[in-house]
Design a protein that fits this description.
Elements: E1 13-15, E2 19-23, H1 29-38, H2 40-43, H3 57-72, E3 76-83, E4 89-96, E5 103-110, H4 119-134, E6 139-144, H5 149-157, E7 161-171, E8 177-186, E9 201-203
Parallel strand pairs: 5-6
Antiparallel strand pairs: 1-2, 1-9, 2-3, 3-4, 4-5, 6-8, 7-8
């Protein structure tokens, strides 16, 4: 995801006003298993990985182990989203390197009981800041099905541009084909975006604060 010669420090933990986002650990498996079971009906229509659910606890631990391995290798960054006390798992936000050179895709899902509370927007703002200020990308994209109005509302709220709706472009969790909305935010527009004004602290794998240049 990054040029090894730049020596950027990857953010393993991000703190916002209300949230803690950190890389998954296999030790999170019981809590992850509980939340995915609670939210199955809420997530299944929209989240592709739900086609593999329900997993056993051991399978969930191995799945999260894979997330951590990919994180350490800078292949993709999947963050568990907790409340500030790190007691309640509220969802997940991700930075995915699958939208071509110079870009990262943000993905997210939110616990059914956290919908409508600004959790996904706050976590997504944190991911936008990490993408532009630490990963130094030129653009960030968010993709979702047009019918997923809750997900589509987030990029619209945060100042992304709806570039296109691609017909029959993605597979849903039931194996069907669905349309895909593409939303983009470019580095040139980032300084005036909602996300740029969101307060965060980012920490590396040693727990050390990562300094970032002014926006």
């Amino acid at each position: 995801m990054k040029d090894e010669t730049t020596h950027k420090r990857t953010a393993y933990r991000v703190e916002t006003e209300r949230l803690v986002l950190r890389c998954w650990s296999p030790a999170d498996a019981p809590l992850c298993r509980q939340v995915l079971d609670e939210c199955d009906a809420h997530l299944r229509p929209w989240i592709p990985f739900m086609k593999e659910e329900p997993r056993s606890l051991q399978q969930t631990a191995q799945w999260l182990r894979g997330h951590r391995a990919a994180f350490d290798l800078d292949q993709m960054y999947r963050f568990a989203v907790f409340d500030a006390a790190e007691e309640n798992l509220l969802g997940e936000n991700m930075l995915l390197a699958r939208v071509g050179p110079g870009g990262l895709e943000i993905g997210y899902w939110t616990h059914k009981d956290s919908v409508g509370k600004g959790i996904a927007s706050e976590a997504t703002c944190a991911m936008i800041r990490i993408a532009f200020e630490i990963e130094k990308v030129d653009r960030v994209e968010i993709m979702c099905a047009p019918e997923n109005q809750a997900s589509a509302a987030i990029p619209a709220k945060l100042g992304f541009t709806h570039e296109a709706t691609l017909m029959k472009r993605a597979m849903d969790s039931e194996g069907g084909i669905c349309d895909l909305m593409v939303w983009s935010l470019f580095a040139a527009d980032y300084p005036l975006s909602v996300a740029a004004g969101t307060g965060i602290n980012a920490f590396d794998c040693m727990g050390m604060l990562i300094d970032r240049p002014p926006v």
